[in-house]
Amino acid sequence: MLSATDECTRPINSVPVTERGAGLPPAILLGGGANALSVARCLAGAGVSVYAINEPEAYVRYSRHCQWLSVPVVEQDIEGSWARYLLGPESDHLQGAVLLSCSDAGIQVIARHREALEHRFRLDDSNREAQGRVLDKLTTYQEARIAGVPTPRFWVAESSEQVVALREALVYPLLVKPRLSHLFEERFGKKFVVVNDFDELLATFDAVSEAGIETLLMELIPGGDDLLCSYYTYLDEQGQPLFHFTKRIIRRFPVGMGTACYHITDWNPEVAKLALKLCGQVGLRGLANVEFKRDPRDGQLKLIECNARFTASNCLVAGSGFDLASFVYNRIVGRPQQPLEKYHQGMRLWDPIRDFEAFLELRRRGELSFLGWLRSILHFQTFAYFQWTDPLPALMRISKPLRNLFAR
């Protein structure tokens, strides 16, 4: 059994840890969807008590591997409400816990209140300024250009007049993309809006501006969703990557603009090289995920986004052999661990319901037959929500349409 001194060999903070269970400090997860559920399952499997602070409808609250912390959100201020709970007396019983972010809102809470949180919880090493730059889509693309990482074309406009001034330079289809995705999703329920002409652009821009959300205008890279790929690593105190992992997307739903519903692990050194150029330019530390899309017009990989946290496909990464949740937790508490060196390529993560909807959309377009879809799914699959030993999150997710119907 590890002692409190043994567990914290790095000077992350000076919080004394109370022995619980196997002597491991608990973990608190901030926000997240499928990623929070995966992190909870991984840490619980390693003997860690897991708590979650999240939105009321989060599926992680139904997991047998997680204890739910009810934190009322005051005046729709998620970040402020979470911060008040963590820094207030209600969380005194959790002092010494490891605090992990599974959402952009969680990253903001930890970055803005880091000094105060360090006196109560154990935090991973990070570069707050770098995290802020990759949270903001505009500064992410600006840093990428400095690093020589290809990006889609983009334009900045802060008023309708500036949009009008850009009229001749713009191309369509065009994305109206928020600088801070989580704020846009909270308000509009999507990550961006696709517009196909100037009138549609002006109407969308005005609606988003009225909501007080800053955006940028970006060209839509053509081609299928299977051109999307991403890289994962952890950057230590010197900015050195401690492992390398890549995967690609097979399908998304809605097609061309939704979240991924089918992934597969692979190894793509080109993706890794470009991602590390961006991470080095920004100065990221800790977890990093960089997503690209190959542009069929010139064959270049072009940046889509960068995340400094666990992502929705974390269960695929873990199932392939890289348990990122335990890796980060062990670094924070100072537990010895084996390096992450090899993972299984060709492993798949499948969301059956959403992927079937993607198939129907692709079939209507004449791009995928039923036999083609069937052949693509006849493989051993990993599931983000379903687990035989922890079925309730998946059951709650499947029953959501029925619950919404009865609520209406």
Automatic annotation (TrEMBL):
<dbReference type="Pfam" id="PF02786">
    <property type="entry name" value="CPSase_L_D2"/>
</dbReference>
<dbReference type="InterPro" id="IPR005479">
    <property type="entry name" value="CPAse_ATP-bd"/>
</dbReference>
<keyword id="KW-0067">ATP-binding</keyword>
<dbReference type="InterPro" id="IPR011761">
    <property type="entry name" value="ATP-grasp"/>
</dbReference>
<dbReference type="GO" id="GO:0005524">
    <property type="term" value="F:ATP binding"/>
</dbReference>
<dbReference type="InterPro" id="IPR013815">
    <property type="entry name" value="ATP_grasp_subdomain_1"/>
</dbReference>
<protein>
    <recommendedName>
        <fullName>ATP-grasp domain-containing protein</fullName>
    </recommendedName>
</protein>
<keyword id="KW-0547">Nucleotide-binding</keyword>
<dbReference type="GO" id="GO:0046872">
    <property type="term" value="F:metal ion binding"/>
</dbReference>
<feature type="domain" description="ATP-grasp">
    <location>
        <begin position="141"/>
        <end position="333"/>
    </location>
</feature>
